[in-house]
Amino acid sequence: MRVITRAFWVVVCISVLGLCGCAHLSGELSQPDMDSIRAEVAKQTSDPIMSVERQAWGIVRVQTGVIRGPLNGGGWTYYMKRSGATWRVKKAVGWTT
Asked: Domains (ranges, CATH) in the chain?
């Protein structure tokens, strides 16, 4: 029973973190940058943001999706680049587990 309880809480915690807008952030981005990224991603999908990672050449990788359990999840990976004061999606790749 303990394993089931732990697995349940891990899934619940991931879901709650995603829904509240909390995400793993790698690298430094300002609050206006994060707001712009969130707004652009919201135009593409209703999936919660799971992580935001700064890449080379000014690219940001944004991972969205839902993980319901082992080998039971899906979402999108967006590669974004700043264009003026906003961030734009340059490439989108779907993923499933």
From this structure: 2-96 (3.10.450)
The closest of 2, 83, 15 to 48, measured between CA atoms, is: 15
Residues 6+ positions from 19 with CB-CB distance below 8 Å: 48
pTM of the shown model: 0.72
15-51 pLDDT, tens digit each = 334 444 456 666 688 899 999 999 999 999 999 999 9
Please state, in angstroms and rounded to a whole number, the distance separating the CA atoms of residues 58 and 73: 29
Classify each residue of 53-83 as buried b or exposed e, where b means 16 or more C-beta atoms within 10 Å of its C-beta: eeeeeeebbbbbbbbeeeeebebbbbebeee
Distance CA 38, CA 36 (A): 5
CA angle 20, 65, 8 (to 5 degrees): 70
